[in-house]
Design brief:
Helix content is 26%, strand content 17%. It is an alpha+beta fold and 66 residues long. The chain has one domain. It starts with a helix and ends in a 14-residue tail after the last helix.
Length: 66
């Protein structure tokens, strides 16, 4: 799921999905519930670029809470 969100946000020339170092799900398991995720990236530049472009996800119903 994280890689699909990153692919929606990045430009065609960027490869931010290669920058993902670690993905951790937070909280306890609850059936049918969604758990937040902590994503660790290799570089701060990639994080800043992704956060600057998160506005592209406003039209996407599945990822509006990011």
């Amino acid at each position: 799921m994280v890689k699909t969100v990153i692919k929606q946000v990045q430009d065609s020339t960027q490869e931010f999905d290669q920058e993902v170092e670690e993905i951790i799900r937070l909280g306890r398991y609850s059936e049918g519930g969604r758990k937040p995720m902590k994503v660790k990236m290799k570089s701060q530049v990639a994080v800043e670029e992704i956060m600057a472009r998160k506005g592209k996800l406003t039209d996407d119903v599945d990822h509006q809470e990011i």
